[in-house]
Amino acid sequence: MTIEKKIEICIGTDRAKNLRVRLSLLVVDGDATLSEHFHSVAIEPGADLAAIRAGVEAHITTPNGGVPGAPWPKIPDSEWADVEAHVGIAHKPEIVARFAAAKATREGA
């Protein structure tokens, strides 16, 4: 029996063009999933991906930090590469500009 913790990512969008990233936090034994927890984050158009990843990793790797089963390993680069690829598709420059303009209007800038 080889029990390990691993992370898989599922990605979607909402009407505001935020990328919705759900981390499946899995405890597995070979092909068998023993438990699964979730951690989600929304990525706004134009967001700093490195800062978001660092924040999520700090949260999930902290023992007793509020995430069931923590500490979890850091997000695998191969999984985060999928997030970056989706951002490149969903957050085209015109979407980022429109989002920034709407945000500035909401904030009264």
Topology:
Blueprint (H helix, E strand, L loop, with lengths): L2 E11 L5 E11 L2 E12 L5 H12 L16 H14 L2 H15 L2
Antiparallel strand pairs: 1-2, 2-3
Describe this structure in words.
The chain has 109 residues and is an alpha+beta fold. The chain has one domain. 38% of the residues lie in helices and 31% in strands. It has helices at residues 49-60, 77-90, 93-107, and strands at 3-13, 19-29, 32-43. A 3-stranded antiparallel beta sheet has the order 1-2-3. It is elongated and about 55 Å long. 13% of the residues are buried.
Question: Quick recap of the structure?
Answer:
With 109 residues, the protein is of the alpha+beta class.
Global outline: elongated
Secondary structure tally: strands: 3
Task: Indicate the proportion of strand residues.
Answer: 25-35%
Going by helix content, strand content and strand pairing, the class is alpha+beta
How do the strands line up in the largest sheet?
A: 1-2-3
Q: How many helical elements?
A: 3
Order of helices and strands: EEEHHH
- Pick out the low-confidence regions: none
Radius of gyration: 16 Å
Largest sheet: 3 strands, antiparallel
Keywords:
109 residues, 38% helix, single chain, alpha+beta, 3 helices
